[in-house]
Fold each of these.
Amino acid sequence: MKLIHKFARNDSGATAIEYGLIAGGISIVIIAAIAIAGPALEGVFDQIAAALAPTPS
């Protein structure tokens, strides 16, 4: 009976699940931010590359 009571009070598995959910949520936010900012950053880097390209002489 003590084993069942001890098992019912153990919440370390719930804590691990909560940390997993938090990590998953943060990952989703990071992926979304990259997906949104990606095309804009690509344009900026294209402009920089065009400005740094050697001019034909």
Amino acid sequence: MNIVSKPKIVKDYENLTIEIHEQLRLSFPYGFDKYLITFKNKDNKFVSALPFETEDRYYLIRMTRSEAVNIILEDDAYDDDGHLKDDVKGELEEKYENEIDLSDV
């Protein structure tokens, strides 16, 4: 998909919908911290974020590396090793089977 033609949304993780949280779990079953990028915001300050693309939007989800790790540690959908639990993965795959292309993950 062409990112240029999609609206780019910059948001904090806490302000995302439950549906986006669930899709993030599927797209990043082993956590977020390895996928963070850095960019300059409108104030010309460096910000780290998780890039995430849906069918109609391109998200930059603001979070620090420590926040990315803590989100996974505190999420009951992930096991003690930081991996998405199989039963959760199965339920989410069924729910979003037509919405997420997991071939690149």
